[in-house]
Amino acid sequence: MSMLVEMINHVAAEGSTEPTVFGPFHVEGAPHREMGDSIIVDSMENDYEITFVGHVLGLDGNPIEGATLDEWETASNGFYDVHDGDQTAMNMRGIFTTGSDGRYEIRGIRPVPYQIPGDGPAGGLLFENGRHNWRPGHMHFVVAAPGHKTVMTHLFDAASDYLDSEDAWEDAEAFGEP
C-alpha cells in the first residue's frame, strides 16, 4: 500500500529513479565518510563484505557533482543498529558525497533478508492480506543534490531470498552477483 501512495504522490520525470517509502529505520546524523570508506563499524562472523560502486547522473546522463548518498542497511544478523543493543550506534550507516564524476563507492556487506515484526500492525496487515513478513536483502539510500529532486530508494540483491515472492518487489532496482 505504501508503495502505491508513493507512486501516486511523487510523479517523477520520465527516466528518473522511482522513489520508495522512507521506512522507519533511517536515522539523522549518520557520519560523513570518504568515498570508498566502509560503513561497517561492528564486524560480524557472517559478514560478506562487498563494494557498491555507481554514478549519480542527471536526466541528461551527465554526472552530478556534490550529490550526497545517505546510506543504511542491516547488519548480517538482519537487524538495524537502532533495534539491536549489541550494535554500535551508526553501524552500517554513512553519508557519501560524489565528486565531479558523480561516482560513489561504498564498502558494506551483502544485504541479507530480514523479518518485519509479525506481532504489530504491519505484520498483521501483511498476514491479513496473505503475504509473508520477510524483506529481501536490500540497502537504502536518500540521494540529494542542489538543484535536483531528492530521491529515497533502495537497491535489492538480485539473488536474495524473497525477492520474487511479492509483487511489490518487481519494480525494485536490483544488483547482481558479486
- Tally the beta strands: 9
Q: Which consecutive residue ranges, at least 5 long each, have pLDDT under 50?
A: 1-8, 167-178
Strand content: 25-35%
Radius of gyration: 16 Å
Q: Helix-strand pattern, N to C?
A: HEEEEEHEEEE
Structural class: mainly beta
CATH topology group: Protocatechuate 3,4-Dioxygenase, subunit A
What helical percentage do the residues reach?
A: under 10%
- The total tally of domains equals 1
State the end-to-end distance: 32 Å
CATH-defined superfamily: Aromatic compound dioxygenase
Q: Based on the coordinates given, report the CATH architecture.
A: Sandwich
Based on Cα principal axes, name the global outline.
globular
Average pLDDT for all residues: 84
- Main-sheet strand order equals 3-2-7-8-9
Sheet bearing the most strands, described? 5 strands, mixed
Please give a structural write-up.
- By secondary structure, the protein is mainly beta.
- The protein has one domain (2-175): Protocatechuate 3,4-Dioxygenase, subunit A.
- Helices cover 9% and strands 25% of the residues.
- The chain contains 2 helices and 9 strands.
- The protein has helices spanning 2-9, 121-128, and strands at 49-55, 68-72, 93-97, 103-109, 114-115, 134-135, 138-144, 151-157, 173-175.
- The strands form 3 sheets. It has a 5-stranded mixed sheet with strand order 3-2-7-8-9, with no helix packed on it. A two-stranded antiparallel sheet has the order 1-4.
- A hairpin with a 6-residue loop joins strand 7 (138-144) and strand 8 (151-157).
- Residues 1-8 and 167-178 have low confidence and may be disordered.
